[in-house]
Design a protein that fits this description.
Layout (H helix, E strand, L loop, with lengths): L5 E3 L2 H7 L3 E2 L34 E2 L13 E9 L8 E3 L2 E5 L4 E6 L5 E6 L8 H4 L6 E3 L2 E5 L4 E6 L5 E6 L4 E2 L5 E3 L2 E5 L1 E2 L3 E6 L5 E6 L16 E3 L4 E5 L17 E6 L5 E6 L15 E6 L7 E8 L4 E5 L5 E5 L7 E3 L5 E4 L2 E9 L1 E2 L6 E3 L2 E8 L5 E6 L9 E3 L2 E5 L4 E6 L5 E6 L9 E3 L2 E5 L13 E8 L3
Parallel strand pairs: 3-34
Antiparallel strand pairs: 1-18, 2-12, 4-40, 5-6, 6-7, 7-8, 9-10, 10-11, 11-12, 13-16, 14-15, 15-17, 17-18, 19-20, 20-21, 21-22, 23-24, 24-25, 25-26, 27-29, 28-29, 29-32, 30-31, 32-33, 34-35, 35-36, 36-37, 38-39, 39-40
C-alpha cells in the first residue's frame, strides 16, 4: 500500500507550528472556580456515535427495553432560539447541545434547566447554514470538544462553559464533523476548499498532523462531513469523504467519494477505497464510518473484521485492514440521489441498521428536489448484507439513528419519532415533534433525548426549537 499525502510533526514542531490559542495545559479534569463536573451515569452518551467505533449503540442501557418503550412520554422540553442540528451529548446530570445561534448549551439532564452557554463566535452571513453549529460535542475528562462553521475546534470546561483553548484550521475550512477522541488525540474532518483530516492534541490544541483529501492545486471538494471511527487496537482512524467541487478539473480526483484509513499516530495513508472518481450528482458519504465484527450465519466461528459506511446510493462494507469490499447493498432505487443520508445508520446484534431514501425528481434549473419516491428502514446481516427485516417509512430521514437494549430508534422529516424491536422491526412506540429532528435521537440513563431543528434563516424561523426528554410515563 502506498502511503502519501500526510504531514506529520514531532512534538516540538507541532507546538511551534500550531495557531492554537492555548489557555491551559493540564490533561486532568478541568474544574473551574464556579460549577462542578457532571456526575457520570451508568449509560452516558458522551460522543456523537456513542463509542470509538461509531456504532451509535448504547450497549450499557438497561432501563428502556422492548417491553416498556411504549410507555415513553414527554418529561421536559427546553426552548433554544435557533435550529438544532447536533446530537445531544449526555454525561450524568448534564446535557450538552449546539445550535445555529453559534452557541453550545449545557442543560440539566433531569429538568432541562439551563446551566451555561458558550458562544463559539460563529459569524452570521447570507449562507449562514454553512457556518452553523453542526458538530456534536465529545466529553472527555472534564472538557467538551466540538467544531464550528468558522473552522475552529473548541475545547470548553464542561462544568463552567469557560474556554480552555480554540484551534483554528487552515483558511477556507469549516468543521461540520463531530470529533472522536482517543487518548490525547482529537480526530476531526473538515469541509470546504481543500478539505483535510486533522489530528489535534487534546491537551493544548496543537495540530499534530494533517491529511489532505484534495491537493491544493486541485481546487476543492472531498469534504469530510461526519465523525471519524477509531480502531484503538490497530491504531487506525477511518474517515469518509464527499464529492469533488463543481469547479474541479474533469477527470479522476483522489480522495473524494472515498473511505480513507490513516495511521492514527502519524497520519500516513494505510489504504483507501474510492467509490467513484468523478461525481456530478453529489453522492457524498454523509454517514459516519462504523467498525464492527461480523459473524457468519452459516460457517461456525467464521468472523470478519469490518468497517462500513453509507453514501447517497448504498451501504458499503469493507475488510477494515485490507480495504477489500465485502458487500454493498442498495435499498432504494435512485435517479439522481438515494441511499442513507446524514448518519442514518447504526450497528448492533450482528446487524447493520440503515434508513435509505430515494429522490428521483429534481428541478432541471435549480437541481432542487421535487419529491420523495421512497424511504425504508432495514436491518442487514452484518456478515452478508442480506436483509433481515425492513419497513416503509411515511417520510424521509435526515438524522442520526441509534440502538439501545433491543430497541432501534429513528426520527423522520415529518417530525415522527419511532421505536422498533431491533430484532424483528415491529413498531413499539411513536410520537411527534413540530418539525424534523436533524440531531436525531440518543438514549442515556433510561431517557430518550432529541430536538427539533428544521427551519429557515435565523432571522425568519418557521418554528420554535426545543430540546426534549422522554422517559417512562414522563417520570
Amino acid at each position: 500500500m502506498k502511503k502519501k499525502n500526510a504531514v506529520s510533526w514531532n512534538r516540538r514542531e507541532f507546538l511551534q507550528a500550531t495557531g492554537a490559542s492555548v489557555a491551559a495545559a493540564s490533561m486532568g479534569p478541568y474544574l473551574g472556580a464556579q460549577g462542578r463536573l457532571p456526575v457520570a451515569g451508568s449509560s452516558d452518551w458522551t460522543r456523537f456515535a456513542y463509542d470509538l467505533h461509531n456504532t451509535r449503540f448504547n450497549s450499557r442501557e438497561t432501563t428502556l427495553n422492548t417491553s416498556n418503550v411504549g410507555r415513553l412520554k414527554p418529561k421536559w422540553r427546553h426552548e433554544i432560539g435557533a435550529p438544532i442540528q447536533t446530537s445531544p451529548t449526555v454525561v450524568g446530570d448534564t446535557l450538552f447541545i449546539g445550535a445555529w445561534d453559534g452557541k453550545y448549551h449545557a442543560l440539566d439532564a433531569e429538568t432541562g434547566e439551563p446551566k451555561w452557554s458558550y458562544n463559539a463566535g460563529v459569524t452570521p452571513e447570507p449562507r449562514w447554514q454553512l457556518r452553523a453549529m453542526k458538530s456534536t460535542a465529545q466529553y472527555d475528562r472534564g472538557r467538551i470538544y466540538f467544531g464550528s462553521g468558522e473552522g475552529e475546534l473548541n475545547c470548553v470546561d464542561a462544568a463552567t462553559g469557560q474556554e480552555i483553548w480554540k484551534s483554528k484550521m487552515d483558511p477556507g475550512l469549516r468543521i461540520s464533523s463531530s470529533p472522536n477522541i482517543h487518548g490525547d488525540r482529537v480526530f476531526v474532518g473538515t469541509s470546504g476548499r481543500n478539505s483535510q483530516i486533522v489530528c489535534i492534541d487534546a491537551e493544548t490544541g496543537a495540530i499534530r498532523w494533517k491529511f489532505k483529501i484534495v491537493p491544493d492545486r486541485e481546487g476543492g471538494g472531498g469534504s469530510s462531513w461526519t465523525s471519524p471511527a477509531v480502531d484503538e487496537e490497530q491504531n487506525i482512524v477511518y474517515n469518509v469523504t464527499g464529492n469533488p467541487s463543481s469547479f474541479n478539473p474533469p477527470g479522476p480526483l483522489l480522495f473524494t467519494d472515498s473511505i480513507i484509513a490513516n495511521d492514527l499516530e502519524t497520519g500516513e495513508l494505510l489504504w483507501h477505497y474510492q467509490v467513484r472518481a468523478t461525481d456530478p450528482f453529489d453522492l457524498d458519504f454523509s454517514c459516519h464510518p462504523m467498525i464492527f465484527e461480523a459473524v457468519s450465519p452459516g460457517k461456525r466461528g467464521a468472523r470478519r473484521q469490518c468497517v462500513g459506511a453509507g453514501n447517497k446510493t448504498a451501504f458499503f462494507t469493507w475488510d477494515r485492514y485490507t480495504g477489500e469490499l465485502l458487500w454493498r447493498v442498495m435499498l432504494t432505487n435512485w435517479a439522481t440521489q438515494g441511499g442513507p443520508w446524514w448518519d442514518s445508520t447504526a450497528v448492533a446484534y450482528n446487524k447493520v441498521y440503515v434508513v435509505s431514501n430515494a429522490i428521483n425528481d429534481r428541478d432541471p434549473i435549480t437541481s432542487r428536489s421535487l419529491g420523495l419516491s421512497e424511504s425504508v428502514t432495514a436491518a442487514l446481516h452484518a456478515y452478508t448484507g442480506e436483509i433481515v427485516w425492513w419497513r416503509h417509512n411515511d417520510s424521509m430521514n435526515r438524522a442520526p439513528v441509534c440502538v439501545a437494549n433491543g430497541v432501534f430508534y429513528q426520527s423522520l422529516a415529518n417530525g415522527n419519532l419511532e421505536a422498533f424491536d431491533a430484532e424483528t422491526g415491529k413498531l413499539l412506540w411513536q410520537s411527534s415533534l413540530p418539525s424534523t429532528s436533524r440531531g436525531g435521537i440518543v438514549i442515556a440513563n433510561g431517557t430518550l433525548y432529541t430536538s427539533n431543528g428544521e427551519g429557515g434563516l435565523p432571522t425568519e424561523p418557521r418554528h420554535k426549537y426545543y430540546v426534549y426528554a422522554y422517559s417512562i410515563d414522563g417520570a
